[in-house]
Amino acid sequence: MTEYDTGRPAVGSAVPHDSTALTDWLTSLVRNREYGTLADLRRARNPTNAHIRAGWYGGDAHRELFERMAFLFAIYHQGRPVPSYGYGSLGDAARRIGDSVHRGPDNPGAQRLLDRVVASRRIPWRHLQHTVTRLRSCDQAPPSWIRLTEDLTQWHDRKARIAYQWSVDFHTPATRSGAAQSKQQQTRKGATT
Q: Model's pTM, two decimal places?
């Protein structure tokens, strides 16, 4: 490193995104009880320093997307003392929406919500917020924040077929062992950090 090196990339070079680092930072806010920063992240209309910091993890190409992911994370964790890394895709998470009798595809509200999400050409931020809010109100785990962030960075990539995969995940019954394994991974991840 030279005395003129600022630690920033040279002008014109692309800074890659890091969804794992974003999730680690956000979960540390919950763990360290930094409620003021989390409250700042829930203020979507007036970007704060917290939004700017979340955007850093998005690199040059995904700054705004990472800021909005931080907003979704903060919405889910409002008033929660323990961070949740989540598990599965958004389609898997939408399967958990509903009441004790009807969840996922058997719940008309969950079905309509997922239909709105996957029908959108642009990233459906409003419907994603509604999904996160519904998961929170049903006291269900969110999707994996890392996976959701990565999926949204590929939303416009036709080969990735993110919306299609979420629909498949929503309509495919989860195996008990697969769901239990995902919950164990979530718990293990939370215990090691």
A: 0.83
